[in-house]
Design a protein that fits this description.
Elements: H1 3-36, H2 44-62, H3 65-87, H4 94-112, E1 126-128, H5 136-141, E2 143-145, H6 148-164, H7 166-176, H8 178-183, H9 188-212, H10 226-236, H11 241-263, H12 270-273, H13 276-288
Antiparallel strand pairs: 1-2
Length: 306
């Protein structure tokens, strides 16, 4: 390949990581907050799909992509809050409830989103990072989602809150020891419901980025399992909001390899490269989830020895 082709390939992978990684970033931050409180939400796939449909519908009906973002966040928060409320009941299993909510969210999105498959909604503005280059391909590859800076700020805010604020300390305490939290007079269920709902709202921003920026349309296959992948991503990031940023960009870059190669004329193995994020997820789970051991940084209430 020529130097220009190599430059286009690198720009395509970097730009793709910044675009494809945005939904991963928001969903992983939402799951990180939820799991820090001692609850796991496998229903984030349903949250992501429902919020993507709601955001697209909100933007289409109002003509404003930012209203669509708000609608997507609210939809994600409501579905996640339902998960939190159900899991607070005695004898209810987090994993089983999450799977049920995933089916409910995707089913609602598919049913309510039927009229939205053909129309086009206004899209979020792009941040141009490639104006330094004379190459049209490089400039096109480095068009960045306007929600990306918000995701980075959220990661910083969560990291600071967990480390420096009373609310963050309570969330961590509920995740590490429910008994200690109750002994201090706090409601474990209340903390977990609030954390789960807030995590769903953050994940809803990821759904909005799917339909209002990249790929920028609503269809029933919009998510491709990103909500479930985010659970593995949080484990890989060791429950750290800041590491979630790097992990999301890694997964985004993995998903961008195939399109970047195709953009420079390498079509062999295109579909094979599209499997890289799923293979990466499998490898991470195999390495980190060993029988009889607890992953470093795991909240105590989520440990296998509980």
């Amino acid at each position: 390949m020529t130097a220009d082709m190599w430059l286009s390939l690198v720009a395509g992978i970097v730009g793709g990581a910044l675009r494809v990684g945005v939904p991963f970033l928001f969903v992983s931050l939402g799951e990180c907050l939820t799991e820090k409180s001692g609850r796991i939400n496998l229903g984030l796939e349903g949250v992501l799909v429902l919020s993507a449909m709601a955001a697209f519908g909100g933007a289409y009906l109002t003509g404003s992509p930012w209203v669509g973002v708000l609608v997507g966040a609210i939809a994600g928060g409501l579905l996640a809050a339902l998960h939190g409320l159900l899991c607070s009941l005695d004898g209810v299993n987090d994993v089983a409830t999450g799977i049920a909510l995933m089916l409910l969210g995707t089913g609602l999105a598919f049913y309510l989103g039927k009229p939205l498959i053909q129309p086009q909604a206004p899209q979020l503005p792009a941040i141009a990072l490639g104006n330094w280059s004379d190459s049209q391909a490089v400039r096109a590859a480095l068009q960045i989602n306007a929600l990306l800076p918000l995701g980075i700020l959220l990661a910083l805010a969560l990291w600071w809150a967990f480390a420096r604020t009373r609310a963050g300390l309570l969330v961590r305490m509920a995740g590490d020891s429910a008994n200690a939290t109750r002994a201090l007079g706090y409601s474990v269920s209340g903390i977990r419901i609030a954390s789960t709902a807030a995590g769903g709202m953050i994940a809803g921003l990821g759904g909005a980025s799917l339909t209002l920026f990249y790929p920028g349309s609503w269809n029933e296959g919009i998510s491709s399992g990103q909500g479930l992948i985010a659970v593995a991503l949080v484990i890989f990031a060791r429950w750290s909001p800041l590491r979630c940023v790097g992990a999301a960009l890694l997964f985004g870059g993995a998903g961008a390899i195939g399109p970047a190669l195709q953009s420079v004329g390498v079509s062999w193995g295109y579909h094979l490269f599209n499997t890289v994020p799923y293979v990466l997820t499998l490898v991470i789970l195999v390495i980190t989830c060993k029988p009889g051991s607890v992953a470093l940084g795991s909240p105590g209430e989520l440990s296998s020895t509980r």
